[in-house]
Specification:
single chain, 288 residues, alpha+beta, Protein Transport Mog1p, Chain A, four-stranded antiparallel beta sheet, 5 helices, disordered N terminus
């Protein structure tokens, strides 16, 4: 009787475990989902992560960032009170750049912009597939080491980045797990154009004049930020009174010839700056 009872109990436990096992596995592997119809993006991320930050920068081009971080009290405190932190935690970041105007290709975005951080890499990149799309992958160095994947689509460029300290860090495994779940869909949101909210008379025709992009690069280098953080507010055509754009110093010899160019106002780090240029941007002077 006792042996029979033990056998029945054993069978009950085995049968119960067979039913519970899939539930336990699914619970352990449960992921949270991020879905955006505007950006045509869907992906899953581990349940021990949370969306620590999501923000959109509206300027000459729209830029949207989604930051995933490990869900711990300490990390939540860092994001809720960032001024108290000297160094942020490693994160998985998805940055989305407007592309319906510039029409970046993988090569022009990765090799030709500062957004990609490819200039901080060893120059090596590999081709891979993410969400059915061809992507480039490379590693770069900054405050943290970072693993980057770039996908270019007609409306947006998607840059997936994992920041890490050591190649053995768990965040890299989590990053690969996220990438495997990425799905791209049709985008439904409207994106800003360079003419949105432009004041009367301001030039925002596309492509913008070379002088404008030259000023953005000049300001970014002077301030020490990426070009994406330099927002062009206004661009006006001007005829300057001389070759020094009307801003020549006492010791300068300026040709007294009408010099076509632009008056360009930009905003960076909450400060507005006004510049004068000639027509091709080879001469740039800041108004004081």
């Amino acid at each position: 009787m006792n042996k029979m009872f033990i056998v029945i109990i054993g069978l009950t436990v085995l049968i119960g475990s067979a039913f519970l096992y899939p539930y336990l596995i699914n619970k352990e592997q449960h992921n949270a989902s991020y879905i955006s119809s505007k950006y045509g993006l869907l992906f899953q991320y581990p349940q021990n992560y949370f969306v620590a930050l999501e923000q959109t920068l509206d300027g000459e081009r729209e830029q949207h960032a989604i930051v995933l971080a490990e869900d711990t009290p300490a990390v939540r405190e860092l994001f809720s009170n960032p001024k108290s932190a000297t160094e942020g935690p490693p994160t998985i970041t998805i940055t989305i750049f407007q592309n319906n105007l510039d029409r970046y290709t993988l090569q022009s975005f990765v090799d030709g912009t500062n957004f990609s951080n490819f200039k901080l890499s060893d120059g090596k990149k590999t081709e891979t597939i993410v969400g059915g799309e061809i992507a480039w992958r490379y590693r770069a160095t900054g405050l943290y080491e970072n693993d980057n994947i770039v996908v270019v689509r007609p409306d947006y460029v998607y840059m997936f980045t994992a920041f890490f300290n050591s190649p053995e860090d768990q965040i890299l495994k989590d990053f690969d797990a996220v990438l495997k779940t990425v799905t791209f869909t049709e985008t439904t949101g409207s994106t800003v154009t360079s003419g949105d909210n432009a004041p009367p008379g301001s030039i925002h025709n596309l492509p913008v004049p070379k002088a404008v992009t030259t000023v953005k690069k000049h300001v970014a280098e002077k301030v020490g930020v990426s070009e994406g953080l330099v927002i062009v507010l206004t661009v006006y055509e001007k005829n300057w009174s001389d070759s020094c754009l009307g801003l020549g110093g006492p010791s300068e010899s300026c040709l007294a010839v009408i010099t076509p160019g632009y008056e360009i106002t930009v905003k960076v780090r909450d400060m507005e700056q006004k510049y004068r240029t000639n027509s091709d941007g080879s001469e740039i002077r800041r108004e004081r």
